[in-house]
């Protein structure tokens, strides 16, 4: 019997598969379906202090090798998300990570205070298509330092979600010095789709974020670099996990857990397929646990 | 899945604020009744529309003017123009009825017309109850008459057919009709009554739900129904009656653009 459970920044997960932010929206029912399908933890959709409607349609474009989206962080705001997360806490047995979008320490604290029923916060420093939030933080390591410090000194467990753009290691260093508990890497990559017959950008937000298979090797590189520089900081490796091979690859690169997002387009069953594959791999290769292979590619 | 550019072959005024568009597809969608497509007007927006028919490379869509993009379509997209379509999306109606009663309200009649054609083509007996505000708002009635054995029309002001709602008329014809399936599409409060009545009578019933659809492929959660986490865009839009009655949201809540659950619009 191989051990699938992992500890990530003090959170005990029954297995390393985490539902990434953004794909479940704000539905407790969908989070429950993910739990029933086997997920080890779920991440909420990014919540901002005030409600946001997001961009007008089209908001997604499907490619053979990924998905481009410009949802624009639609969410009902911190107060309503607090109610949703309390309900999630009542219904779910697995840890819930609350993704938050903030641009100042004060804003982040106000969001965190309005939420309850989460086990960790994930600061979204990397949404590629919303101004003033997300990706803009990637170019402002000092702002990240301020927000992470404020959240840490208020006693929260904090993950920082990094983008593959810019000097993400500089941002990670600042977050590390502020006491960040873990990294999530990576968010989507800035991308754009133009329909050649319409001769116009497809997405309502014009620029979107590329996810799925296409960005997997980028995620492996970023996770590898993070683990090399901060070997003691856990990473939730996210990006193009379509099956168990990509999941194991990210774990070997240094991820303690793996995020699954775009692959859920194929159905909740992919969670079980990924878990089954990881388990078979560990057994066949003679490893006792997931934790025994974290970062093995560095050795 | 990218967009298919489709030429507008024909535009028909069906009722105030409701038009029918016949689109020429470069490839057949192979859509099933109850499925929908997303119509993209470049630079304007994108909206979901139930398929009202597909035959020989022609897609029939009934578009009600509701917002910016549908308003633009009504005003600016004419015969010979182009729109962009992705689909078909979602799960449609099960087509295993032998004697079916279709209950449509307003432009909800559109997907039921496609269903009526398919059911009757498969040898089923099809009856339809169609409810409208007034004679002026009645649509597709003659099309239904061509494929359905019986078509009963209700108008709220009595200007055509039975005076009352589709539900009032349904309550009259349903008992004793010997139907083995009921299909409904229209205002959710109407469908809720039809579904409840059919389930109580032990007759299989399916309803097509309307929600704000964003991604259309089941990843964003904008159209999730609680507490089961069913997505209207990909698990639906058609659901069976027992499933609908087990939801907190059916007939009560929908989600606004931010994802917040709010009372169903009247």
UniProtKB/TrEMBL annotation, chain A:
GO terms for cellular component: cytoplasm
Location of the Dihydroorotate dehydrogenase catalytic domain: 4-282
Essential cofactor(s): FMN
UniProt-annotated binding residues for substrate: 45, 69-73, 124, 187-188
Cofactor-binding details, from the entry: Binds 1 FMN per subunit.
InterPro entries: Aldolase_TIM, DHO_dehydrogenase, DHOD_1B, Dihydroorotate_DH_1, Dihydroorotate_DH_1_2, Dihydroorotate_DH_cat, Dihydroorotate_DH_CS, Dihydroorotate_DH_I
UniProt-recorded name of the protein: Dihydroorotate dehydrogenase
CDD domains: DHOD_1B_like
Keyword Flavoprotein (UniProt): yes
SUPFAM superfamilies: FMN-linked oxidoreductases
Coiled-coil intervals: none
E.C. code: 1.3.-.-
Function of the protein: Catalyzes the conversion of dihydroorotate to orotate.
Binding-site positions, FMN: 21, 45-46, 124, 161, 186, 212, 239-240, 261-262
PANTHER family: DIHYDROOROTATE DEHYDROGENASE (FUMARATE), DIHYDROOROTATE DEHYDROGENASE (QUINONE), MITOCHONDRIAL-RELATED
Organism lineage string: Archaea, Thermoproteota, Thermoprotei, Thermofilales, Thermofilaceae
Subcellular location: Cytoplasm
Keyword Cytoplasm: yes
Keywords noted in UniProt: Cytoplasm, Flavoprotein, FMN, Oxidoreductase, Pyrimidine biosynthesis
The organism's place on the tree of life at top rank: Archaea
Pathway: Pyrimidine metabolism; UMP biosynthesis via de novo pathway
UniProtKB/TrEMBL annotation, chain B:
Cofactor: [2Fe-2S] cluster
Family matches, as InterPro entries: Cyt_c3_hydrogenase_gsu, Dihydroorotate_DH_ele_sf, Dihydroorotate_DH_Fe-S-bd, FAD-bd_FR_type, FNR_nucleotide-bd, PyrK_electron_transfer, Riboflavin_synthase-like_b-brl
Molecular function (Gene Ontology), one example: 2 iron, 2 sulfur cluster binding
PROSITE patterns according to UniProt: FAD_FR
Keywords: 2Fe-2S, Electron transport, FAD, Flavoprotein, Iron, Iron-sulfur, Metal-binding, Oxidoreductase, Transport
Gene3D superfamilies, per the entry: Dihydroorotate dehydrogenase, electron transfer subunit, Nucleotide-binding domain of ferredoxin-NADP reductase (FNR) module, Translation factors
Keyword Cytoplasm included in the entry's annotation: no
SUPFAM superfamilies: Ferredoxin reductase-like, C-terminal NADP-linked domain, Riboflavin synthase domain-like
Positions annotated to bind [2Fe-2S] cluster: 215, 220, 223, 233
Record-listed E.C. numbers: 1.3.98.1
Record GO biological process: pyrimidine nucleotide biosynthetic process
Signal peptide: none
Residues covered by the FAD-binding FR-type domain: 1-95
Cofactor note: Binds 1 [2Fe-2S] cluster per subunit.
Entry keyword annotation includes Iron: yes
Family: Belongs to the PyrK family.
The protein, known as: Dihydroorotate oxidase B, electron transfer subunit
Organism: Thermofilum pendens (strain DSM 2475 / Hrk 5)
């Amino acid at each position: 019997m191989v051990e699938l459970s992992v500890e990530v920044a003090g959170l005990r997960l029954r297995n390393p598969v985490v539902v990434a932010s953004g794909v479940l929206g704000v539905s407790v029912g969908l989070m429950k379906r993910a739990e029933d399908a086997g997920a080890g933890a779920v991440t909420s959709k990014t919540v901002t202090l005030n409600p946001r409607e997001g961009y007008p349609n089209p908001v997604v474009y499907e490619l053979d090798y990924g998905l481009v989206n410009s949802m624009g962080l639609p969410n009902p705001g911190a107060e309503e998300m607090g109610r949703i997360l309390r309900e999630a806490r009542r219904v779910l047995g697995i840890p819930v990570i609350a993704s938050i979008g903030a641009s100042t320490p004060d804003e982040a604290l106000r969001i965190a205070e309005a939420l309850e029923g989460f086990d960790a916060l994930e600061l979204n420093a990397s949404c590629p298509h919303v101004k003033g939030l997300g990706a803009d933080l990637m170019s402002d390591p000092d702002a990240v330092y301020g927000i992470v410090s404020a959240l840490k000194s208020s006693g929260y467990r904090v993950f920082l979600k990094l983008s593959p753009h810019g000097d993400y290691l500089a941002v990670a260093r600042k977050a590390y010095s502020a006491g960040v508990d873990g990294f999530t890497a990576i968010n989507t990559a800035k991308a754009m789709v133009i329909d050649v017959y319409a001769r116009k950008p497809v997405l309502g937000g014009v620029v979107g974020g590329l996810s799925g298979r296409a960005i997997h090797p980028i995620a492996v590189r970023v996770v590898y670099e993070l683990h090399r520089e901060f070997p003691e900081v856990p990473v939730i490796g996210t990006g193009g996990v379509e099956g168990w091979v990509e999941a194991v690859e990210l774990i070997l690169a240094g991820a303690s857990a793996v995020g699954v997002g775009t692959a859920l387009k194929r159905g909740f069953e992919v969670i079980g397929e990924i878990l089954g594959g990881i388990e078979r791999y560990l057994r066949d290769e003679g490893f006792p646990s997931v934790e025994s292979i974290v970062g093995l590619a560095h050795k | 899945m990218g967009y298919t550019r489709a030429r507008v072959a024909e535009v028909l005024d069906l009722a105030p604020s409701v038009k029918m568009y016949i689109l020429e597809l470069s490839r057949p969608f192979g859509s099933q009744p109850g499925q929908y497509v997303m119509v993209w007007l470049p630079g304007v927006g994108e909206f979901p529309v139930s398929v009202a028919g597909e035959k020989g490379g022609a897609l029939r869509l009934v578009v009600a003017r509701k917002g910016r993009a549908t308003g633009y379509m009504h005003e600016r997209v004419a015969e010979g123009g182009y729109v962009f379509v992705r689909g078909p999306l979602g799960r449609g109606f099960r087509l295993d009825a032998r004697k079916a009663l279709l209950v449509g309200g307003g432009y909800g009649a559109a997907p039921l017309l496609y269903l009526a054609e398919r059911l009757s083509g498969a040898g089923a007996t099809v009856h339809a109850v169609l409810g409208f505000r007034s004679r002026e708002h009645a649509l597709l009635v003659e099309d239904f008459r061509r494929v359905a054995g019986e078509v009963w029309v209700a108008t709220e002001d009595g200007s055509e057919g039975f005076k009352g709602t589709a539900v009032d008329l349904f309550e009259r014809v349903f008992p004793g009709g010997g139907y083995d399936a009921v299909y409904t599409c229209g205002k959710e409060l109407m469908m809720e009554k039809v579904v409840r009545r059919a389930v109580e009578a032990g007759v299989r019933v399916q309803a097509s739900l309307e929600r704000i659809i964003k991604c259309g492929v089941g990843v964003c959660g904008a159209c999730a129904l609680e507490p089961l986490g069913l997505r209207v865009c990909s698990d639906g839009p058609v659901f069976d009656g027992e499933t609908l009655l087990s939801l907190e949201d059916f007939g009560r809540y929908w989600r606004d653009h931010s994802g917040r659950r709010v009372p169903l619009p009247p």
